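User: Can you predict the 3D structure for this chain?
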Amino acid sequence: MTSADRQSAVQKRLLKRYRDEARFRAFGIAAIVFALAMLALLIGSIGSQAISAFTVNELTLRVELDAERVDPAGDRSPDSLRRGSYNGVLQDALRAEFPTVTEREDLRDLFGLYTPLVAARLLNQVADNPDLVGQTIDFTFPISDHADLYLKGQITGRESEVLAGGFTISRADGRATIISEAGVFAAVRDAVRADLDLRADAIEARAERYETRSEAAGDAARSEQSSQDAEAARQQAAALRALTRDDGGDLELTPQLPSRLVRIAGGFVSVDAISADGRSVSGRILVDGDADTAASAEVLTLSVPQADRRFSDAQIAWTEALQARGNVSEGFNTWLFTNADSREPELAGVLGAMIGTVLTIAVTMALAMPIGVFTAIYLEEFAPKNRLTDLIEVNINNLAAVPSIVFGLLGLAVFINTFGLPRSAPLVGGMVLALMTLPTIIISARAALKAVPPSIREAALGVGASKTQTVFHHVLPLSAPGILTGSIIGMAQAMGETAPLLMIGMVAFIADVPSLSLDGLTEPATVMPVQIFLWSDGAERAFEARTAAAIIVLLGLMITFNALAVFLRRRFETRW
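Assistant: Here is the predicted structure, written as structure tokens:
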């Protein structure tokens, strides 16, 4: 082979190596970009669900603290004040806003705009300041979760159309007829007919699917049932088609159709009939207006029919009226961070779970880190290499792979059943998580100790240091960054665990905030992962956003712990 051939072969190999390196770098960059994109997708998905939980609509009412109702004994003592009827006071304040609401069923819906649990907050406010008795105060509290979701547009779509031309209102027996000489309600009637046609088309399509299923069924009973379902669907569609016919009569709206509310003269009317000529609509008065004539009217179309939601047309009208009067305002949801758990979503907060998490992780760190680090030091620096230490190392590695729920069973059997420690306490939770985290800390600490160059040990021993002095004065400080990194990884893993804590009773509903002290270690508490688990299983729709918000808070706690680990690692890091 000539010199030129050899140079050509070397050049080809160099080019191939450069291409391989470039390809490897491209793969690495692509992997990082993919990981960041998935992280952004995860955070974005959670954040989009959580954003509504960080705001809340609050209701402000003028509350008259009548002495006879809030201070039955008349001595303003704590016992007397705590026997007061604060829920009744709030109900009176709400009835004062809508004096025409008198029927029992309507009153029940009206009082559904808030949860009776806020009465406890009013009680505490009066108990802390007895001079409020006999006064009239502005009391602000979260509106009900359904009203809050409606105002955020999460219960039903809402379209608004302003009609002009002059209107006359006649009222009788709780109903109103709104008359427009210009016939502006014809457009509303056409929209209702279009809704009826769409629903009839959907029901007819369902009938065809039933018919196809009947023909394909091999079982005679199933075929007969599908045929009956198809016939029932056709009859339902035909009934809807009949409503769309222009027979000269009023067009009636049923609860199965999108609701139409008319805001006029400061009041609300729920439309249930529209005249054939489009000159008038009639319906139930939800909020009584203050005049018999108006220059304009606003038609609110609620896309979800009243029969398909738990928030009625009347409650929507009352909520809209309160907002128009300035009684409802939206702001940052401080309740989420100042309250403990609650059965009512509007009052539920993460403070109790956050404090429980801090106490539990504090116990975990206080137990797992010293024991884990000293165990690693002994095994790596002092223990003789024999079959016993080999067996211990194998078992430590195996424990790191044991499912976390096994440690929960161990804690239940030993700490609770044998030693009688309290259930649902941060002390027990921290001890269980410490057992689970120990193998991770031991393994990472041993790796950090092993990474210290042997020359450090040899130099220390060469100048006369003892084995103990060499380890604690030289090796341990140099391995501290690696040990901290492994310990924080173990803590982050423990912070996200749920299964072992469920086994020791930390799934209990805890409505009180544990004290951030030594006494709080034995008080009933819960932690953020368990709180998220409970909220994700909540029946109320408002818990969906609060679940995502709690996840954001938990991620914030984990980022804080990791940031602390990075700071400490850089603080103690030594380069050689």
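Residues 158-308 form one domain. The chain has a mean pLDDT of 86.
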